[in-house]
Structures
1.
Amino acid sequence: MNKHFQEILLSSTGATSFFEVELIQNLWSGYGKIMRYGLKGSPMKSVVVKHVLLPKGHNHPRGWNTDLSHQRKLKSYQVEMAFYENYSQKCDVDCYIPKCLALETYGDEVLMVLEDLNEAGFRERKTYVTEKEIKQCISWLAHFHAIFLNIKQDDLWEVGTYWHLGTRPDELKVMEDLPLKNAAQAIDQQLRSSKFQTLVHGDAKLANFCFSRDGNKVAAVDFQYVGGGVGMKDLAYFVGSCLYEDDCEELETQLLDHYFAELENALTERKVAVDFRELEKDWRPLYAMAWTDFHRFMKGWSPGHWKIHSYSERLAREVVEELNKNSY
């Protein structure tokens, strides 16, 4: 960390000194690191620092080393900073996120100093979740979507999610599933044309949720792909990140029902003026559409991925058939 960033870290935390505790993770494609630092002389014991340092050469794990890929990552960090600066204050205990203590750019480096969720009571990371924990995450998403429903923004992604068609022409080009490839624009248009738009997290996978020890509370991290969209995008992606295909199918209706019950409660609590029945009628059918949209990305990006399974193929086939039927 350069000297300027060291000074920002100390001033933003009131610490007299800091020390490295651990590397939490390297950022995708070698774009920096997320570190945990211990503090001395501060009321906080530790903070998490996201330090973005642009690589000298591109090194994508799956070989997508294009300038477009590079520019997308650059914008994603600008978006994350904008989210923390201009929107994060709206989030509360029902969709907890780490408090942002400092944001700084210096040359081609970015620094984000964030509350340590371990110290805030969210120490647990899960690779397997119970139904209760799944529903906690879905509740988080419902509150997030309620808070930002119909919000006007121009400094995040116009269309949220990292797999959005407009930012993934390379993956579309190499797709071998021609019916899905040919339907990609129509699927994107269906999702974008909903009159009920909110902010979506954009990368709401299980790995980006942190849990309390009792599993009754959850927080989320990683806001690089926040932008406009329908809530079904986050929901479909989250469910696909933590359930195998049989459970995805078996629990589909139950989890959708839970999401909409939580969304209605969140909208009511927050006194958001919206016709909920109309919103649900609009969004619920878009679950399969959103699932298929991500499936389209996966089939171009990593055709052998475990998420490409019979449930996803069936949903995609039904979506494409319905679109083709309606086009005549």
Note: The CA atoms of residues 89 and 99 lie 8 Å apart.
2.
Amino acid sequence: MNLQEKQRVFPEKIRPLISELTNVIVVKDGVIEKNTVSDAALSIEAQPLDEQLTKAFDDHDPVIKENLKSASFSLLITVKKDCTIKEPINLFIIQDKTTNVVNVSMVAEAGSSAQIREYIYTDTSQTVNYLSRSYLHPSSQLDYIGIVNLDKDSLSAINRQVIVMDNAKALLKTAQLGDGKTSQKVDVDLNGPFAYGEVKTIAIASEEQEVIIHTHVEHKAKNTQGEIEHYGVAANESFLVFEGTGKIHKGMKQSIAHQSNNGVVLGRYARLDANPLLLIDEYDVEASHGAAIGRIDEEQLYYLMSRGLSEKDAQRLIINGFLAPLKDLMENENLKDYIQGLLETKTGR
């Protein structure tokens, strides 16, 4: 592929990421345009949805039903039994000229371990219906990062579902950094004893953007642990909502459900709501939730300004500290620069 073809296929703003990273799969407008993954421990197939995998998930949500019914592209990534994938798999989902319905399934077989980095991107007005499903067999582990950056005129529904079996561990981090109206939902089912699920979400809303973040962790086995952490910034006239639910079913003793919501409001007309919820049907458990939403602490701001910083620089320093969990996403300099640029643009700093 010559330079002109690469420029046509890969949008300019994320082209450096694609060229810098290894183990890259690029899906653009429903077609695999690039695949540099070559690991014998992996199986990567573009194919219709796996019927057995589909049956394992609950599909009452109408948006998910529509995705399953009309998906224009499906990808299945399987990590083979007892294998460890040391280098992250970087999956780019790009929409440019057509509106596609895309779903990706990931299966971690027993005793396996993998890292998935998912980038959903468009720089044109699009309607995005994206679904990812992960099934973790006993004693497996998945480290999953999902970054969403969509055009301001886009409308998106991003759904991620995870089933975690015995002694398996799911570590999910998602970052909503785009400009379009977005509904993002993460559902984690802890279906086996000693299953662990952790969901950390960062969302930044700006201008007149509306972003709704749902996180649901359900305990369906004993001795399971679920952790939900939300971090958000609402700027200008935007509206950001965090809805988190931890549900422990009756009889699921010794389970642990924790949730925290943290947010900063920038701008007189911005709004950030947090709605933490615990549904507990068992006594012998540990559960907690909390929310801390507010504007930048005036005392912190004054202290930094008294040390010679301008008000904007002081605000930027405070916000960068608040969004420290984003450092988990910064695995190389290109990725670090890309995310830092998005942060500064989104917060007006």
Note: The first helix runs from residue 3 to 9.
3.
Amino acid sequence: MSVARAPGLSVRLKLTLSYAGFLMLAGALLIAVVWVFLLRYVPEVTHLRGSEVPGDQPVTFVPNRLDLWRAFAPRAAQALAFLLVFGLVGGWILAGRMLAPLRRITHATRLASDGSLSHRVQLEGRSDEFRELADAFDTMLARIEAQVAEQQRFVANASHELRTPLAITQTLLDVARNDPSRPTGPLDERLRAVNARAIRLTEALLVLSRTEQRSFARERVDLSLIAEEAAETLLPLAEKHGVTIETSGEISPTIGSKALLLQMTTNLLHNAIVHNLQEQGTVQVNTAVCPESVMLTVENTGEKLSPQLVSTLTEPFQRGTERIRTDHAGVGLGLAIVKSITQAHDGTLTLTPRHHGGLQVTVQLPGARAREDAR
């Protein structure tokens, strides 16, 4: 969570001003010492030497302190001006060199906050305060990365282990259902529904683990075509719920995994269809192109949602019970998977409750041209 702060001076500028101010103060003190030293040997009034000597002996004028000030002040001002310019230029260069390690640490911190835990600062040179901070940060990142990788491996392994017994159970239930000599009852249908739900949960966990590891190939894809494919796939479900799907937009190229982006769009459409009005509901799907990004927007009608509820819908296993139906309830990972896929493609996900009811979901991904220029 970022904290909003008022704009202020950069640390580099503050250090530059500090260096220049200290140099100016030291120069002013030095000039003051020289001035005091000169005053000891200069009288306050002008003296005439040789004026009382008869003959052609010349008269010598000894300067007073006013004459000395007139000669000394311009030179002192020039020296202070030089020290000011020298202090600002030199201070700016020194501050930049001193803060270079801090900028590298800040860059690594931002990458870590965006989910890139493999990046390390790796400051070179002998040990000092900045390098101790960088080493401690690298050690922390290594531990976090190891823990996250261990959790992801556990989820993936557990999901793989669950797929086999669930598939066997599904096969046995199908065989029992198709056996004409065995009567079927509500218990069989309930077991089939529970087993199918467990299979969907396992597949969802596998997708979630895959996106968090970012272990997928990237290619050039068009979000508008993906939106049309997802809408065509879910058209029977929409007709069953009495929901109309409207698709529009322009060609929106991006770089990513076609399978994962299709999964993301399908989850959004499925969520928009299931959580809709009982009758005459609508779902609007739109794609748009921005200067450096592409956008996919899915809007649906439905009940009014509070901002507090909307802010929790992307959490795993958060179903939003006050807006859920008894059928096709899902496993509570639909929007969590959407968020994970969006982050894996370096995009942003925004959920906004509509004023008249329903939800607007916007996915913004880097455009294909921006991706290619970044490479």
Note: Residues 321-329 have pLDDT under 50 and may be disordered.
